[in-house]
């Protein structure tokens, strides 16, 4: 994947030159540079805020928390989310055909816990993975390497100001991100900017007003901790936000988790 053709400087929008030997991204016609840390380009090295710190801190235990991998997390997920398994993840990932041939943007990639079984099947795709937390990106790097996934590039950036050129993405996967993004309107604007016309927007996230216990935990624990950031959308509010620019091909929810597939008009 030729990242220099796809990326630009998120501040100046100038072209970039990537020098892996020097572990530096140079911005053309500018003094600006960005570090490359363990193969991950960091377009927001100055960011060290509550959200990135929260996810850096949970990155090593995130997988076991999310996957009901032991009896405690099973009980926890059943109580908080009313879920016994992560079926919604399969529904989302099944929207992507295994022979998908195009450029995918996965944002936020998180720890790659759910995608590490899907990406080895996507032999014809190229995948750019973006997240705000370096800790989460390092977990994704480890799990992708373990699964011998080579067609991915890992990038630290803010979805509200993506370092990607416009109209280059064929499919944008956004799993469990919208409830975490601080500026959801900017996130949706950027998603729409980088997607090609007729490109697919696929994902899942928390919606309010479906399950009281989940809403209480989100409002009183996750929001304070920084892993979720309001405002939270109801299904109707989200569908209204997208309806001018997207056609939904499928949408559904399991308790408080909404999942959907849509196509940019
Ligand atoms: C709940 S995790 C979801 C990760 C993964 N997609 C999954 O389903 O397991 C939310 C992720 O959103 C990332 N995030 C939060 N704000 C972000 C932003 N402004 N831009 C990009 N990623 C962001 C966090 O760092 C975190 O890794």
Automatic annotation (TrEMBL):
SUPFAM superfamilies: S-adenosyl-L-methionine-dependent methyltransferases (SSF53335), Trm112p-like (SSF158997)
Pfam families: Methyltransf_25 (PF13649)
CDD domains in the record: AdoMet_MTases
Gene3D superfamilies per record: Vaccinia Virus protein VP39 (3.40.50.150)
Top-level taxon of origin: Archaea
Domain Methyltransferase: residue ranges: 104-199
A single GO molecular function term of this UniProt record: methyltransferase activity
UniProt cross-references to PANTHER family, sorted A to Z: 2-METHOXY-6-POLYPRENYL-1,4-BENZOQUINOL METHYLASE, MITOCHONDRIAL, METHYLTRANSFERASE
Protein name in the entry: Methyltransferase domain-containing protein
Species, as recorded: Methanobacterium bryantii
């Amino acid at each position: 994947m030729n990242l220099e053709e796809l990326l630009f400087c998120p501040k100046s929008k100038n072209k970039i030159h990537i020098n892996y030997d020097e572990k530096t991204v140079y911005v053309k016609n500018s003094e600006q540079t960005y570090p490359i840390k363990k193969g991950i380009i960091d377009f927001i090295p100055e960011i060290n805020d509550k959200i990135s710190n929260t996810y850096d801190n949970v990155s090593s235990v995130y997988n076991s928390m999310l996957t009901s991998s032991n009896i405690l997390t099973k009980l926890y997920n059943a109580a908080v989310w009313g879920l016994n398994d992560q079926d919604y993840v399969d529904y989302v990932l099944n929207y992507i055909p295994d022979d998908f041939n195009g450029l995918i943007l996965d944002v936020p990639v998180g720890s790659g816990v759910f995608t590490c079984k899907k990406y080895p099947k996507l032999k014809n795709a190229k995948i750019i993975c973006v997240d705000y937390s370096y800790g989460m990106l390092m977990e994704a790097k480890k799990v992708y390497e373990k699964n011998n996934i080579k067609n991915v590039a890992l990038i630290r950036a803010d979805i509200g100001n993506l370092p990607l050129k416009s109209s280059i993405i064929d499919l944008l996967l956004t799993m469990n991100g919208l409830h975490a993004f601080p500026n959801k309107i900017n996130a949706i604007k950027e998603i729409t900017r980088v997607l090609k016309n007729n490109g697919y927007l696929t994902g899942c996230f928390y919606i309010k007003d479906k399950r009281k216990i989940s809403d209480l935990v989100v409002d009183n624990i996750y929001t304070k901790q920084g892993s979720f950031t309001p405002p939270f959308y109801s299904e109707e509010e989200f569908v209204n936000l997208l309806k001018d620019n997207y056609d939904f091909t499928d949408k559904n929810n399991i308790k408080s988790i909404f999942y959907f597939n849509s196509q940019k008009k």
